Amino acid sequence: MTEQAEIVMFLSLKNMDNNLKISIITVSFNSQSTIRQTIDSVFSQDYQNKEHILIDGKSKDWTLEIVEFCKEKLDYFISEDDDGIYDAMNKGIKVATGDIIGILNSDDFYPDNNVISKVAEVFNKTKCDCLYGDLVYVKSTFARKVVRYWKSGNYTKKRIKQGWMLPHPTFFVRKNIYEKYGLYDTKLKSAADYEMILRLLYIRKLKVEYIPQIMVKMRLGGKSNRTIINRLRANYEDNMAWKLNNLYKPYFIRILKPMLKLKQFFNKPINE
Questions:
Q1: Domain encompassing residue 20
Q2: Where are the beta strands (DSSP E) in 175-265?
Q3: What would the pLDDT profile of 198-251 be if each residue is shown by its tens digit?
Q4: 138: closest CA among 194, 216, 212, 211?
Q5: How far apart are CA 252 and CA 265, in angstroms?
Q6: Mapping DSSP to helix (H, G, I), strand (E, B) and coil, where does residue 180 land?
Q7: Quick check: 47 and 22 in contact, CB under 8 A?
Q8: pTM of the model
């Protein structure tokens, strides 16, 4: 193959990748210290056929002023009352015009500028329904300091019965899957993402791919982990997630799930 032919093939593959439109949904509330980095991390992605949707819950701090300063980097923005984070995510999914939907929280960011390109490449190559990758937790005040490493590994039905869960901010799903199987259940305030994984992977057995690389950096301090009361509520809602899908929750999962999280503190990512 000549050098010219190789260039033509490369450009053809690149154009094929760009045919998939990818929507990134960010939900924010009082996120003045982090929202700019989240917006910039999406805007700086080298993948062109993308849109960034920001759903704000009527922030009371300086979030809206910061968003106003960089709103040209957004494709859709609204600030209004909502019924919690998952209600806001559902609003974003409804207005998204992309083929693929990813959710990046307002205190999370992509570690480099080719995450979405990689997502498009895997969707095109495998024709999967959804995919996910790895995630690291970083200090809220010093984002270069890795505190936990969530190395997901491949999904299996056995693993999910043993307490396995994928990192939701790395989860990308075809929009028609949400249209077919429903949005996030707003009855759940901290485990609707867990219920969605059960519904799509465990029940519907969708074709899912795993990207073995760090796709998202998340600052510590998530809602479900902030206090003991929130953690207890999250465990209660985990039980509800199984019941809502008419599933029997394995007895030892309430022990195994926290143990898997504990393991994340001892895993160390390469080159971090």
A1: 3-263
A2: 208-219
A3: 999 999 999 999 999 999 999 987 554 455 556 566 778 888 999 999 998 776
A4: 216
A5: 21
A6: helix
A7: yes
A8: 0.87
The CATH number of the domain holding residue 58 is 3.90.550.10
The per-residue b/e assignment along 23-59, b for 16 or more CB within 10 angstroms, e otherwise, is bbbbbbbebbbbbbbbbebbeebebeebbbbbbbbeb
Supply angle C-alpha 162, 134, 143, rounded to 5.
125
User: How many alpha carbons fall within 13 Å on the CB side of residue 122?
Assistant: 24
In the structure, how many helices (H) and strands (E) does the chain have?
A: 10, 9
- Sequence length of the chain is 272
Total tally of structural domains belonging to the chain: 1
Residues 154 and 258: their CA atoms lie apart, in Å, by 19
Question: Any idea which residue has 């010093």 for tokens?
Answer: 142
d(CA 174, CA 119): 11
